[in-house]
Amino acid sequence: MDILAHGLWVDLGAAAWHRHRPLDRRTVGLAVGLAVLPDLVQLAPLVALTLSSSEGWGVLLAYANALPGYEPPMSPLLAGLTHHLHCVMHSALVAGAVTGVLWLWLSRFWLPLLGWWSHVLIDVFTHSADFYPSPVFYPVTYWGFDGVAWNNTWFMVMNYLAMVIVFAMIFRRK
Fold first, then answer.
1. How many whole angstroms separate alpha carbon 42 and alpha carbon 138?
2. Helix (DSSP H) and strand (DSSP E) numbers for the chain
3. What single-letter DSSP state applies at residue 174?
4. How far is the CA of 172 from the CAs of 13, 18, 164, 165, 169, in angstroms?
5. pTM of the model as a whole
6. CA dihedral 47, 52, 55, 61 (to 10 degrees)
7. Comparing 156 with 53, which gets the higher pLDDT?
8. 42-100: per-residue pLDDT in tens?
9. How many CB atoms are closer than 10 A to CB 86?
10. Across 4-13, 78-87, 149-158, which has the greatest mean pLDDT?
11. Closest Cα partner for 155 from 118, 116, 128, 135?
């Protein structure tokens, strides 16, 4: 799923939750931030390239708009770094370890982590095996579920239409 959609889905989830149990803005903001963080971390090396070289902007745009099999050529170091950051940030094992450490430290579940967990869960089913499959059990395995490619036009239209419907359901007046 695209970065914006991750943030919007978590914001909609927080709005629905808020109707039954109040949430403070800080918690919602952190949850939305954690929902988009996995993709932003993955893009960080490309953003650094963009800021440090003249060809960087073109590589970043090509990467962001790539279709399966049409990823832009990158140096082995950059390709490996973005790949491993993707794997780390989309792993349920890594998210589980962070959740466990925070739970031990805080003696409770830290609610904003639901943003990261939603990102991992959604991406498992919205990434195809051909295009950045989400390696949910990384670093044990690179295996990823062969889901629907999120960048298919029909899927993006359906996804944003579903958000509009959920928004209308949450905010409709009785």
1. 15
2. 7, 0
3. -
4. 15, 14, 12, 10, 5
5. 0.89
6. 10
7. 156
8. 989 988 888 888 877 887 787 777 766 777 778 899 889 988 999 999 999 999 999 99
9. 22
10. 4-13
11. 128
